[in-house]
Amino acid sequence: STLQETTERAGSNRDLGLIDRKSMIHPFTPLRTFSDGETGGPVVVDRGSGAWIETADGRRLLDGFAGLYCVNIGYGRPEMAEAIAAQAGKLAYYHAYAGHTSEPAALLAERILEMAPANMRRVFFGLSGSDANDTQVKLVWFYNNILGRPTKKKIIARERGYHGATVMASSLTGMRFYHEGFDAPSGPVLHTTVPHHYWGAEPGMDEAGFVAKCVADLEALIAREGADTIAAFIGEPVLGTGGLIPPPAGYWPAIQAVLRRHDILLIADEVVCGFGRVGHNFGCDAYGIEPDLITVAKGLTSAYLPLSAAIVGERVWSVLEQSSDARGPFAHGYTYSAHPTCAAAGLANLDVIARENLIERVAEFAPQFQAAFQDAFAGHPHVGEVRGTGMLAAIEFVADRDSKRRFDLSEKIGARLSAAALEGGLITRSMPHGDILGFAPPLVIDTNDLDFMIEKTKSAIASVFPGV
Ligand code: PMP
Question: How many CB atoms lie within 10 A of CB 260?
């Protein structure tokens, strides 16, 4: 037999699961029990097409979470593979240090600025949402150093905000789970109230009252710390990993007014919302947010290759531009900043989004998508809240609706629900904070896919709460 056949046979005879368990550390996976095979898995994912993936043992699954809400244009796009192959064949890599560039990197930066709010001026490329948020913090510190404000350095994030897993980004993340055990430094980071009316409002408090409370909490934090010590506020337009929480009406304009009054920069973490997820180019466009800096990743390439960007607005750029050269070159960057092949994937992805009007499609489909979840689940005795916007939806489960009593953590309701949905062929995500089932499918799903999601979720709920 040929060498290729021999190699293929050798590959297929080996137990990939065993190889994986004995070789790899997985993110967000138990260490010992996974490695020993006690928890089962790994799930070997083999291929994908549209909103569906297929495992190596032949199961077809509807990916109701688009990977990690990143495969926005869906799997298996030949035009993506072609664009990536063409760039890799021509020039897979060159760096962007000391003024080098490549055609796809320059064109993608221009394209991002065309899609971004009008005050955005420059793009700095990274590889992940986490490193882009690290870049934002460094830019904000650099900015205040140039302005001669060495004490204006703290960053306000929000409880339940998610900003990544590098040292700085995990500090920004407002969930204890991501800090415990890692000594994530809390020094320069403060956390303020999460704008979640369901849990945060006092009895009888309407949305406007709750927004006023969020604003008062922020004001009190700034007063306590001193505005001259606070550089920036970072927030996701719609909270993602913390539970898919759209902001209450009027939240962002009110928060923004406080930040302006205290000369605090606003960083919009658009890693989830950017490029169509909520039916606009950016979440900022949906909520009247006028950020100074924007973080994007995920939907920028639909995850065909890793790529992120810190987008820098006029207020920060005008300072960096005026003053940085006296210190020597801008001393920040990564080997893979502005990676040409990743940038080619970004351009091809934005081409697909434009050609297929995917952002407009989300805006049109969202009412039906949201109504389907409301109609199917809002009345269930163990559902506390059904919420969402665009093509993000969440169902939050509670033991008792009236008292909002939570299930005991040991019952693992969220994890059991997503496991039951998986049995039925649907991938959902049990969000890490509470018993929340999250949905964020590829933006290309159709009505049949939506029906499938609703039906399989209903069956999962019925199996976890039999007789209810
Ligand atoms: N910010 C937000 C809002 C995110 O949702 C994520 C990832 N889920 C990140 C940052 C971090 O991105 P990455 O995992 O690519 O580092």
Answer: 12
